[in-house]
Amino acid sequence: MADARVVECHGVSLSIPASWRDETLFRFALPPPGPTDPGAPPFRTNLIASRRSVDPALNLEDALRDLLATAPPKAREAPASFKVRVGHLAKQEAPPPEAPPVQLGSGLGTLQEHRAAWLDVSFFARDANRRLFQRQILSLPGPGSMVVLTLTSDEENLETLTRQVGFTVR
Q: DSSP secondary structure string, 148-162?
């Protein structure tokens, strides 16, 4: 194909037409930290990395505002950058079915050498029968390109885990 680019994917070379948008998606599962409660369904902390095409004029602050707009209603009332201590959430009993996710924080940071925005939420996952903690990190590595990292854990360890992939909160 004359208008194609070659993409390496897990050891395979693919010829991709130039008109196709790159919306790459990777999923990584972390090894279990140790023995789990035999009565609880297994949960694997995981990282999903995706790439999306966006308007080249999009800036990071607008991307964070858009991300907050998709968050639970209570989160939309919070300032654009805040942090809440939530150590007690991991110990809570299952909330009622109508309980919304809890907004934990948001703000700006750095992913490798790129500016990034982040949003943390916590929610009770009934299928896993446990509270989960999730951090979304948005980065604009180049015009028209957005990388979204979504890290989900059943422990309150998002800071430690995201530092391992090169993200730091400002």
A: EEEEEESSS-HHHHH
